[in-house]
Structures are given as structure tokens and as C-alpha cells.
Amino acid sequence: MIATVAIVFAKFAPATANTPLEVDTVAHRGAAAMAPENTPAGLEFARHTHARYIEVDVQLSADGVPVIVHDVTLTRTSNAVEVFPDRESYAVTEFTWDELQQLDAGSWYHEDFAGERIPRLEDVIDYARSGAGINIELKDPALSPGVEQVVADVLAADDRWHALNQRGGLVVSSFDIDSLATFHGLAPHVPVGGIGGVPDDATLADHATWMASWTTNYRLMDDAAVDRVQVTGMEFVVYTVNSPEHMLAMVDLGVDGIVTDAPQVLERLKFGFDPLPDANGVVVSEVVADVPGVDIEPETGEHVVLHNTTDQPVDVDGWFLLDAVANRLDVGPGYVIPPDGTLGVYTGPGTNTSDRYYNDFGRNVLNNNGDSIAVFTPDRELIDLFAYY
Ligand code: G3P
Ligand code: MG
């Protein structure tokens, strides 16, 4: 049964720098809202947020190098099609390490990140810091046979991984429980965490004999899940929580960890600071993701509504919006939202007006089952974070 999460105001006392909220920040794919996912720039951003863990996804290249990429294919997060136009497949596991090194893994997100490279797992230890660790997700391990041994070997080959583990900063996670068990057999001293829907109590109890944590999609759980997991002794972690309101709702439920694309926002909330210090009164007031007909119906398709809540006009020329997988919708040139006015930013085609801008993106973007929207100025200042469902 799928339950939507009720967004509630936090019942606990407000956080302050002296009494921070007790929840671990897990910086998702580096910091996927703030920099291209799973790249050095994202890992560096995450490192500076003091997140408890930086999460990365590992797969094997065709020649067996553990590489940090989330999707099964390279098409969304690199220029692989441009660099290798004649390939029949763009599966990560069909490219050699040498080929992967030729890809730009940053421009797809924003031109400021042109030239970002796909890292190897070995490189990720450089981003650990005292008090902050690394969460290595074995991503689709069935497509990367032997990845468990490769990861175990990488962790054994550099003393810094050992030191990180000694101070409680290392976890290996996966949706694939069999793969996780294989890894656990090879490296029993490294804590492991399962990911997926919350299983029945007997399965949870069994998992708790060898897992340190269970991670689930916060939109697909019911409130009882927190206690059911925690009573086994495992920590309970939720993903991917991207608005301050949803973060506070999860803290209120008592989760141990929150996976987020904007780790700096959660860290600021935890210590009682304004989570969005660059906010200027323009907010996302509504996301219309599921429209009658196709989602990119001309004129009336899916869109995000920006509301200027101030009594002054706000110039939004060149602003852009990112959804949870960093699909980018732009605001066209010359747009100004009047006081208390709105601007609809549409995915599909239509005739632009003073309060509607059409991206004609070519496909729908906004997930009908829940998504998040980050709003940025042209200088990449984060103005608002909104999540629905
Ligand atoms: O850690 C949980 C999260 O990373 C799982 O989802 O698809 O982003 O790897 P995904
Ligand atoms: Mg992951």
C-alpha cells in the first residue's frame, strides 16, 4: 500500500547550533541538485557541507574499473552519444575506462561544469573528511558481475578506507540484497545497508543480523515503517528528500538518516539556520505534473508555477529549474514577475506570454508520482526547493 507522506510542522523544539536536529545527512550522488551527480565537483561540494555521508553509485567499466555513475546508460549524464556516435549501446558496462575518461560528465547539468570527469571508486576516498564518510552503492550489480570483489579489493588497497571504516564513516549499500550479502561475505568488517521497500518483520529481523541500516523511498512508506525497522536495531534512512518541509517531516517521524540532493539545506536546517539563505521571495507555488491528455500537450501541458510573493517586481531572466534528476527547464530572456504575480514555466510547446514561458523540451520531465524542483538564478544561487507528493 502506498501512503503519501503528510507534511507536518516539526513538533520538536526548534534546532539551534547548540541543539542540532539528530539526523544524518547523506549527500546523494555527491550533491545532485547543486552540481552534476557523481562527479568530482559534486563530491567536493558535498565534502564542504559536512554531510555525514557522501553517497555514490558504483558500476564496472568494460575492463573492470569501478566507476561512479548512477544510470545504467551514459546518455543522461554525459556527452557519450556525441563523442561515440556510432555505438549501438551506451551501457556504462560496455565502455572501457579509457573511453569513459573521454566523456564530459558536467555540461549536461550546466555549462559551468564543462569538463567534469567520471571518477573511479579509488578517487572517492579523497573526499572523505573527519566526521564525514562515504556510502558506496552497488548499482545494478547484476550488470557488473564481480563488482563485490572489486569494491572489497579497492577498500583493502588504501589504508584511508580502513581508517574511515574505523571511525564509522563507511557503508556499502544496494537494492540487490544478494549482491550485498556477497560483499558482506568478502568484507564482513564493512557495515552494509539494504535499500528498497520495507519488508515484513521477519525479513527485517533476518536482515538485522547482518545489516546496519535499511533505506527506503520516503514517498512509498507508511509511518509505522520507522519503528518496524528501528526495533530491529537497524538504522532507518529515507531517500530522496529535497524540500525543507519534507526534511522536517522526516525528522519528525524519527528517521536516522536523510538522503538528499541538497545536503547543505539539511545541514543548515539541522543547526537552526535559514535553509535557503539566497531566497528572495520568489517561490514555487504549484507544480502541475499530471495534466489531462499528454503531459506536454501544447499550451496546457505540465508546468511549474513561480510566485513572486514580494511587493517588488523580480527579474527572472535566465533563471532555471531542475527536477530531481536535474532535467533543466529555463526561464526565457526578458521575464519579470510583477509583485504578487506568477509565471508558469512549461515543459512542452506553446506561445509565450508575459506569464507563461514554454521550453518545448521534447519530452515530459515532471514525474507524476512525485518530484522536486530546485529554482536557480543564472549565477546558480538556490532560490527555492519544492517537493510534491
Ligand atoms: O541511497 C539511496 C539512493 O541512492 C537510492 O536511489 O536510484 O538514487 O541510487 P538511487
Ligand atoms: Mg544511489
Secondary structure elements and their pairing?
Elements (H helix, E strand, L loop, with lengths): L23 E4 L12 H10 L3 E8 L5 E3 L11 H4 L13 H4 L20 H4 L8 E6 L8 H11 L1 H8 L3 E5 L2 H10 L5 E4 L5 H7 L5 E5 L6 H7 L4 E5 L4 H10 L3 E4 L2 H8 L11 E7 L14 E6 L5 E2 L4 E3 L5 E3 L5 E2 L4 E5 L9 E3 L12 E6 L5 E7 L1
Parallel strand pairs: 1-2, 1-9, 2-4, 4-5, 5-6, 6-7, 7-8, 8-9, 16-17
Antiparallel strand pairs: 2-3, 10-11, 11-16, 12-15, 13-14, 13-18, 18-19
Helix pairs in contact: 5-7
The structure holds SN-glycerol-3-phosphate and magnesium ion.
The site of SN-glycerol-3-phosphate has 10 residues, from strand 2.
Q: Into which percent range does the helicity of residues fall? A: 10-25%
Structural class of the secondary elements?
alpha/beta
> What shape does the CA trace take?
globular
Q: Cα-atom Rg, whole angstroms?
A: 21 Å
Number of strands: 19
Supply the number of helical segments.
Answer: 11
What is the N-to-C order of secondary-structure elements (H for helix, E for strand)? EHEEHHHEHHEHEHEHEHEHEEEEEEEEEE
Main sheet specs: 8 strands, parallel, barrel
Instruction: Report how far apart the termini are.
Output: 15 Å
Count of structural domains: 2
- CATH level 3 topology of the largest domain: TIM Barrel
User: From the coordinates shown, what is the CATH architecture of the largest domain?
Assistant: Alpha-Beta Barrel
**Relative strand content:** 15-25%
**Uncertain residue ranges:** 1-9
CATH homologous superfamily caption of the largest domain: Phosphatidylinositol (PI) phosphodiesterase
Mean pLDDT: 95
Listed once per kind, the bound small molecules are:
SN-glycerol-3-phosphate, magnesium ion
- CATH top level of the largest domain? Alpha Beta
Strand order of the largest sheet: 1-2-4-5-6-7-8-9
